[in-house]
Amino acid sequence: MGLFDFFLKKHTTSNTNANSQDVVDSTHKMNTNNSICAKIEECDSPLSFSLSNVKSIDMGGLKLVPYDAYWYFSVPDATVLNLLANTDKLKEFMPGVDFSTEEKAKKALEGYMFRTEQGLGITYVIRNQNIPVGMIFVNTPKYNKIALNLNIWTVDFFAMKSIEHKKIMFNCLCQILSVMKSDFNVPKVYALVNKANIDCLKLIHHPQYPLFEEIDNTGFKDKDHPGESPRVFVLNLATMNFIHE
């Protein structure tokens, strides 16, 4: 399973008037100190995205579907996630994504729904016949300004066992990165990865086809692994060409 490690805190409540700080606390908050790596380049714009550009992506059998109220009220994702995604890897590398009970899974999904409405980010669910088999989280500078005090775009993801080691997550991630470039005009996107997360490191920084470039991780701390720093990666979307087959 590939995981970007930005996931820490608690999840949101059912309050539909939750403010931006509540939603950030309820989704995936990365822990870092105020000494930021000098090579990280903050962007002045765009800070968010247009809802008109948030669309489903058909991948021929699989779909990348933005999570919204329709899915929350129409599909029993909370039950499926509780049964299939409540894994040791998820608990280790994404401790803030709590699917341990159906109720906690519902609260997590509420947070994903609200974050899109507030321009904080988009949760793309990888669906196989409407069954969630993974997620990719696009976090906007608006979100990261609250969570990290940085105006940068970041991405996080996780995959269930059924699609592990089949290049499905790699292909899905490339689709989302392509959308970030073409539809959201994102210049660069960043990722922080726990050093022990070997599957994720292989996916984004494979020696034969590195997707992201590793940069200096000075100043970043890993809350869940004291004494360690995450590895920090960047992808320059301006110089990346995506080929869709």
Structure overview:
This protein is α+β, with helices and mostly antiparallel strands and 245 residues long. It has a single domain (1-34, 41-189), classed as Aminopeptidase (3-Layer(aba) Sandwich). The protein has helices at 20-26, 69-74, 77-84, 88-93, 102-117, 141-147, 168-182, 198-204; strands at residues 57-58, 62-66, 121-128, 131-139, 153-159, 188-193, 213-215, 231-236. The chain has an eight-stranded mixed beta sheet with strand order 1-2-3-4-5-6-8-7, sandwiched between helices. A hairpin with a 3-residue loop joins strand 1 and strand 2 (62-66). It is globular and about 45 Å long. Mean pLDDT is 79; it is low at 1-20 and 25-38.
Summarize the structure.
This protein has helices at residues 20-26, 69-74, 77-84, 88-93, 102-117, 141-147, 168-182, 198-204; strands spanning 57-58, 62-66, 121-128, 131-139, 153-159, 188-193, 213-215, 231-236.
Largest sheet at a glance? 8 strands, mixed
Strand order of the largest sheet: 1-2-3-4-5-6-8-7
Which CATH C-level class is it? Alpha Beta
**What proportion strand?**
15-25%
Our Rg estimate from Cα atoms comes to 16 Å
What's the number of extended β-strand segments? 8
Q: Termini, distance in Å? A: 24 Å
Q: From the coordinates shown, what is the CATH architecture?
A: 3-Layer(aba) Sandwich
- The share of residues in helices is 25-40%
> With helices defined by DSSP (H or I, 4 residues minimum), what is the helix count?
8
Number of domains: 1
